[in-house]
Amino acid sequence: MSDGEPQAGQRLNYQDLLFGLFMLAVAFGMTVATWKLRIGTAANMGPGYMPRAIAVGIAGFGIYFVVKSLLSQFKAVEPPQPRAVFGIVASVAVFGVLAPTMGLFLATLATVVVAGFASRETRFVENLLFGGAMAIGTVLLFIKGLSLPVPAWPW
Amino acid sequence: MDLFSNLALGLSTALQFNNLLFCLAGVIIGTAIGVLPGIGPIPTVALLLPFTFGLEPTSAFILLAGIFYGAQYGGSTTAILVNVPGETSATVTCLDGYQMARQGRAGPALAIAAISSFYAGTIATIVMCLLSLPLSALALKFTAVEYFSLLVLGLLAAVVLAHGSVMKALSMVLLGLLLGLVGIDVSSGAPRMTFGIADLSDGLDFVPVAMGMFGLGEIMANLERSDERRVVSQKIRDLIPSWTDLKAAFPAMTRGTAIGCILGVLPGGGAALPPFTAYAIEKKVARDASQFGKGDIRGVAGPEAANNAGAQTSFIPLLTLGIPANALMALMIGALMMHGIQPGPQIMTEQPQLVWGVIASMWTGNLMLLVINLPLIGIWVSMLKVPYRLMFPAIALLCCVGTYAIANSVFNIWLMLGSAVIGYFFIKVGAEPAPLLLGLVLGPQLEENFRRAMLLSDGDFAVFVQRPISAVLLGVAALLILLLMSPTVFRKRKEALAE
Questions:
Q1: What's the pLDDT band for B493 if we cut at 50, 70, 90?
Q2: How far apart are CA B321 and CA B329, in angstroms?
Q3: Contact: A61, B170; criterion CB under 8 Å
Q4: Which of B401, B410, B448, B454 is best to mutate for the A interface (most A CBs within 10 A)?
Q5: Three-state DSSP class for B341?
Q6: Is B379 an 8 Å CB contact of chain A?
Q7: How many CB atoms lie within 10 A of CB B289?
Q8: How far apart are CA A65 and CA A71, in angstroms?
Q9: Is the CB of residue B169 less than 8 Å away from at least one CB of chain A?
Q10: What is the pLDDT of residues B306-350, one digit of tens each?
């Protein structure tokens, strides 16, 4: 990750700002989620004691990073490349949907093929063949070899 | 039990035929992933966890440990031959190792790296034996109070000695602790942050989190940088180093081993810090430092020895106290728990065969690395030619299958997906995910011991400084923080971790 062009007089470290805001959001969400839990005293802690203590800590760090980002030099976050992110996310999602319904073989093949879209360098036919080989290997290894109780085929 | 009977027990365990086989498998897999950039020991260990379920815990642990130090070793092979550090710990080896290779001295460089690793591994095994007994004796005196302080020290030290921004690392530990709270509270039975999802009531599985953040998150980040890998094909000859080489390298090896042993035991030490420190020290003590960076053999021997010694001694806190020194050791703890072994000070007395077997297996494993790897270098180099466009779909797939297979749980796949996205975000904003994993694994223990300590002391926080062992542990933790605040140390740390 490289620094963005430092421009004269411009402040704001976007990396720290985003991280700080993320921490604040987490602390807030956590407080809401654990609001009803009994806190108790130190000698007799309720289930809400530690969550509250940690939420305070996380909020504290969140504030620190937000303030720091406003005071420090400009630093950009490199824009994410949608192709890589979506390709990988989609491939895992495909596996999550297909593995329990269509069996391990098709899920494996689909995962490899979809993952291939994450990179510009992928050659489709090569990747398809590779996916087929991986699918055979996975079924042999996990179902025949380790006898995992997961279905291999849709039927 | 004295030292020798322990060692004998360990050796007899490690030398059993099947354990030798698992050790061999571990170091070979380890070396392979060490050679391949883009996949590190953390996702590999996570991936192999389901395979170890059918094994005895000792064999499983021997295999997983082999992967770890095998990877350190494999990383240096590519550092020397291609100037690509397979693992971060081998970055320093690039400096002089690659220069030696360019001068046609790849053979001696590889051999010295192997010999240094083996030498360091042997000494580190002895150090482990010597340190383990007093440490575990001390640990038996631990109550919840001491244990809490130890966990605090462990978490802090892991953060301070790791790469990157300390404040961000501390934040990541807190986020990890938060994730560790998810699930049904043990003492009250109240569900916490489960959002009504039944799969969450037992807490978050750390394997999907680790695979998402370290396996998948890193793929996404890797795909964005498109760096060309050039593979230098070079005939490797003269694998046997000359007498002059050995004589020059030996003192550096010894110093490197000492540095590695010391830094490795510290929580957070592990594999990254020792080689950098060793290189800096070699440069300082050398009478003629002009050749460093241009192919000085001491620049290979010192860091390689430190690297391996550190990798091994980082098992000490895990095996004696049940405290992981880094994210990988956190995974190892998870592996132990999956085999029904509760990590902690009692592990040495309850599972002597496991502890000493693993320690002894490190020595046999190092011997195997020395013997098998030099002839196999051709294979390792050809593995580098596997293009990333085929590697990343395979890694993504293995993460999916591994996660699914561990608990036959579809929920874990979605958990992994979420972790991957968050892990990618962390990489984008410059926060290392490793401390989060430590927090996640240690969180439940931290809370339980804190609660118990408070119950014992009737809510008096002073108990942590009134008990001597606990006070010392917290004192060290405070000292670490103070040191960190002081500007000179801060600059030094930056220099040491730079690169």
A1: low
A2: 12
A3: yes
A4: B401
A5: coil
A6: no
A7: 14
A8: 10
A9: no
A10: 888 888 888 887 777 777 777 778 788 878 877 878 777 777 777
A103 contact B CB<8A? no
**Structure-block tokens of residue A136:** 């055979």
B34 burial (CB, 10 Å; 0-12 / 13-18 / 19+) is buried
Do the Cβ atoms of B392 and A118 come within 8 Å? Answer: yes
Contacts with B390 from chain A: Cβ below 8 Å: 126-127, 130
- What is the Cα–Cα distance from B465 to B315, expressed in whole angstroms? 28
pLDDT greater than 60 at residue B188: yes
List B residues 7-66 in contact with A (Cβ-Cβ < 8 A): 50-51, 54
CB < 8 Å & 24+ apart, contacts of B378-384: B378/B236, B380/B31, B380/B32, B380/B35, B380/B74, B380/B77, B380/B78, B381/B77, B381/B81, B381/B82, B381/B231, B381/B233, B383/B32, B383/B35, B383/B36, B384/B35, B384/B36, B384/B78, B384/B82, B384/B84, B384/B229, B384/B231
Q: Which amino acid is at A108?
A: T
Asked if B396 is an interface residue toward chain A (Cβ–Cβ < 8 A), one would say: yes
Higher pLDDT residue, B422 or B235? B422
**Of residues A46, A50, A95, nearest to B400 (C-beta):** A95
ipTM comes to: 0.87
C-alpha B62/C-alpha A91 separation (Å) is 33
Burial B228-246 (b: 16+ CB within 10 A, else e): eeeeeeeebeeeebeeebb
- Residue A85 to residue A103: CA distance in whole angstroms: 25
Contacts of B433 (CB under 8 A, 6+ apart): B172, B213, B214, B217, B327, B423, B426, B427
- Closest to A88 (Cβ–Cβ): which among B187, B220, B457? B220
Burial of B53 (0-12, 13-18, 19+ CB in 10 A): middle
Closest alpha carbon to B121 in B354, B338, B314: B314
Calculate the average pLDDT of chain B. 79
Taking an 8 Å cut-off on Cβ atoms, the answer to whether A92 and B399 are in contact is: yes
How many folded domains does chain B comprise? 1
Helix (H, G, I), strand (E, B) or coil at B40: coil
Spell out which residues of chain B touch residue A33, defining contact as CB-CB under 8 Å: 192-193, 195
- Using DSSP's 3-state secondary structure scheme, residue B205 falls into coil
Q: Which residues make Cβ contacts (< 8 Å) with residue B301, sequence separation at least 6?
A: B112, B113, B116, B249, B250, B252, B253, B256
Domain with B154, as residue range(s), is: 3-497
Point out the residues of chain A with pLDDT beneath 70. 1-10, 145-147, 155
Chain A residues close to B396, C-beta within 8 Å: 88, 91-92, 111-112, 115
Report the C-alpha dihedral over residues B234, B240, B244, B246, rounded to 10 degrees. Answer: 110
Q: Tell if the CB–CB gap between B223 and A119 is shorter than 8 Å.
A: yes
CB contact under 8 A, B192 and A92: no
Instruction: Find the residue in A nearest to B176 (Cα).
Output: A54
Does A127 contact B389 at a Cβ distance shorter than 8 Å?
A: yes
Minimum mean pLDDT among A52-66, A85-99, B178-192, B224-238: which range?
B224-238
Q: Which of A46, A131, A148 sits opposite B405 (nearest CB)?
A: A148
